[in-house]
Structure formats: structure tokens, C-alpha cells
Amino acid sequence: MNFDNKKKTFPWKVILLTILAVAAAGMVWYAVLLSVQQGQNAVPPEASPAQQTASHGSAAPATEESAPAQAESSPAGMPEETVKEDYFDFSEIPPFDGSPNIPVHDNRPYFTEADYTTDSFETYGGLDELGRCTYAFACVGTDLMPTEKRERISGIRPTGWKFTKYDGIDGNYLYNRCHLIAYGLTAENANERNLITGTRYMNTLGMNDLENETISYIRRTGNHVLYRVTPVFEGENLIASGVLMEAQSVEKDDFRFCVYAYNVQPGITIDYRTGESSGTPFAGTEVRHPSSAPSPKPDWEFVPPSGDVTYILNTKSMKFHRPDCDAVREMNPKNREDFTGTREEVLEMGYDPCGGCKP
Known about the structure:
Layout: H1 12-41, H2 49-55, E1 101-103, E2 121-124, E3 136-140, E4 175-179, H3 183-186, E5 195-199, H4 200-221, E6 225-232, E7 242-249, E8 256-262, E9 269-270, E10 277-278, E11 309-314, E12 319-321, H5 326-329, E13 336-341, H6 343-348, E14 352-353
Parallel strand pairs: 12-14
Antiparallel strand pairs: 1-8, 2-3, 3-6, 4-5, 6-7, 7-8, 9-10, 11-12, 11-13
């Protein structure tokens, strides 16, 4: 058989069908790519304005980390606090006339029945929109009091803080970082919600005596004391005009006060909006002078101890203290002398009782 004479045909149909299949696949692939690109650029209709902005790269969506800090919540069982109620009218406070503080509301605190409890607690209001403290409220018992020496608080800069010294001021520094609730009551120290810019005058003469009276009462009786301090800021001032201090014993109604302390410094002019001030410039000599104006007395009668007691004597200031007095922790060791005997013997030695711990 002769195979050379058979007719050969070219596979045109196969080639044509292959070309059509490849073209169709390319069109499908292009459509898929276009759809994906459009989906990436689109913002879902239900997206929030913040999310829409974030999708364009100009801002990040809000997260829990960027949310404003909330005020510390009250412990379980704490009574409803009333500090935000409009119970105190600052407009009724008379202008400063030379007294570091004055009784308010007949020296009776504004606590309500709902505030009373024998469970110790402490709570500190959140900072306002200007970064200012709002209030500090506690039911203070011996269990809240410090057991260690106070640490430094120089890292806190409350609103209006200025590092300024003048002549004629005890210690020469105009401003102190002033605790709303004293460290000796709740051991709360470097807490920005418990520290305001206070004058040396307010800190030592306006508040210190009342704080020490409260510490002494709690330690002596073991009773709880409701204690609240509210700074008063006028308008958008960064420096408080003063503080309202309230205290009330719980188990027995024998200790209370309600006092407004002026945040002033005699001889110094203060711009309460900014914290700037003016006065006699510091000449380089440190000044220390004792308190000259006592605070209003709380409603509590002091009963001195009988028999032999251990006292701590300060041979420089000629004051005697209880061993747990805050002043003892700060006393220069070379001026310290321990003494055990009667109170009358210490007085006969020429020593005066500390105004804080009331030995």
C-alpha cells in the first residue's frame, strides 16, 4: 500500500478553540482583579466617621488606650458620696483677713446619713478638663495609716506649679505640693489626684494642725473619721483659692470640723490664673519661723496620759513628741533624745508639747 498519496489536514479547529479559551480566561481574571481593587478602596457604608477617616490614613480610630482616664471607682460597700452636690457656696466666704482658715457651716461638716460607714475606704476624684484636682474623700481608720516613711513627690507637677522662692516665707518656697488628704491619714503620697499647688502658708498654718488633730484622734481612740477635702477653683484658675476641709467621727460623735483654708501667702501677690507671683526676691538666706496663728479647734477634748510614757525629745526645737509622730520621722538624729517618764517631768525640763501629735 502507498501511504504517500494520503491527504494531510491541519488542526485549525483545535487551535481556534484554544485561543478562544485563553482569551475568556484572561477576561475573567481581569474582572476579578478589578473587583478586588475596588473593594480595598471603598469605605463600608456603616463605618463611623473616625473609621472612614482612618481608612484614608489621616487619623487613627479611637481605642481603649486613647479614651480619657476615668476617676477611680469607689470600693464595694462605700456609701454614695455627695461631694459633687452644690452644698457649699464659696461666695459666702469672706475675704482673707489674716487668719489662715475659718470655720464654715458652724464648724459642722456637710456629710449626709448615706456617707456614714465603719468600713475604711479612700477615693480620689478624677482630674477635670484643665488637669485640676476635684476632691478627696475617705473614711479613715488606723488600717489606712502609713507604716513606712513617705517617699518623694517631686515628680508630680500640679496645675499652676512654679518653683519660686521669696524672702519672709517659712522655708522661702512659695508653693508646696499640698496633699488634699494628708499622707499621715491614708498613706497616699505621689497621687496627682491628691496633690494641688498650695502656698506654704496654707499647708503649714491652714491645714497642718487640723490634719494632725485628726491623726491623733484616730490613733488614740481607734475610731473612724469621715474626711473630705475639696479644692475651690474660681473660673479657669490653675491655682485654688482655698480648700474646704471636713471631718466627722463615726463610732462616737465627739470629733468634727468644717473649715475653709485660704490658699494665700501674706506679702506675696499671686496670679491664680497661671500661678505666677511677685514679692520680695529671695536674698539667699533660708528662713524658718514657727506658726503664729492656730487653726480652729475641732470639737474634741484632749485628755493627757497618766503614768510613765515614752516621749521623743527634740533638743533643738525643745518640743516633745509621741514616738509615732510624723515629726519624729523627719527629725535630725543628732537632735533626738528618747525619754520615759511622766508628762509633767517633760514639761518641767522646759519642753513644749508638739502641736500635731498632742503628747
